Amino acid sequence: MKTNISKFQDAIRTSGLEPPAFIETGRLHRFPGIGKRPDNRAGWCKLFEDARGGCFGDWSSGFTEYWQAKQTRPLSKSERDTFTRRIKAEREKNEAQLQTRQNEAANKAQAIWHRSTTTNHDHPYLIRKKINPNGARLYKEVLVLPVMNFNTKLTSLQFIDSNGQKRLLSGGRKAGCFIPTPKTDFFSFDSIFGSQSSPGKSSAYCADIAYSHNEIKTLRIIITEGWATACTLAEHEPNAWVLAAIDAGNLKTVALEARKRWPHSEIIIAGDDDRLTPGNPGVTKARLAATSADALLALPQWPENAPDTLTDFNDLATWLTGDHL
Q1: What is the pTM of this model?
Q2: Nearest-angstrom CA–CA distance, 258 and 240
Q3: Has residue 195 got a pLDDT over 50?
Q4: Distance of alpha carbon 186 from alpha carbon 206, whole angstroms
Q5: Which one, of 277, 181, 303, 269, lies nearest residue 232 by Cα?
Q6: Three-class SS state of 183
Q7: Which pairs from 23-30 meet CB under 8 Å and 24+ separation?
Q8: Which ranges in the chain belong to alpha helices (H)?
Q9: What is the mean pLDDT of the chain?
């Protein structure tokens, strides 16, 4: 018969996290977040002292869940009230810890951004993806991209090395945040984050600038998974504002935030087609985002001779301009 500890571990696994092998009651445990490296500590869990309830989550994606063991008898009113108070206290504590962690990461992101330098077009990743820098900068020979929310704040950074390996700044907020591509009619990165010569200076957020233009009512917004795809579509759709949601799991949240801010704009979810991955998460998540935010869905249309390893619009554009044509 499974113990409450093993049942708690099963609940954590169901969420996509891999819990620690040993869980001590009453203690906060840290472990890798979903899809994170072994040394990551974004995942967390706490089983209450009586092992009859607990909570767990992933600070990198911002989700928290609460678990209660099945009871052999109905809880008394006193027991229910005690459990409710415990959950409330843990929720407040977790939210405070998460906010502190994200604030520290945002400050670190701002400091790194202002120490970064201009990116040349000859960075290996840009060459391979056949895209322009589009606002990316260079930090220790790695591309650095700003991750921002819809309320004027730089929340994190994404780093991409010459081999295309990507990582996010530890502790930074990702949920509902995005990597923008510059649309000069509406904003510049310097106007959002401050110029490199005066790093403490920062002015209005792009959406507030955009609202001063009548064309915002008919602005087309395209939301992609990755930044390279966003750059490709931004160059092919100069009248659209293109945002990269960073990954498929963040598409829905970004799309809903965009719809809330621009209720009358056309929003297009440009999804990836993960044809070789079971369940095709790219298409599945893109369709969910489009349905949830009353947006259109666009997927790559593959020529008959296109390799099945291609997954997104950047892959398609790069392949179509390759030497094989």
Answers
A1: 0.77
A2: 13
A3: no
A4: 6
A5: 181
A6: coil
A7: 23/47, 25/49, 25/50, 25/51
A8: 4-14, 77-115, 124-129, 189-193, 206-210, 227-236, 251-261, 281-292, 313-320
A9: 85
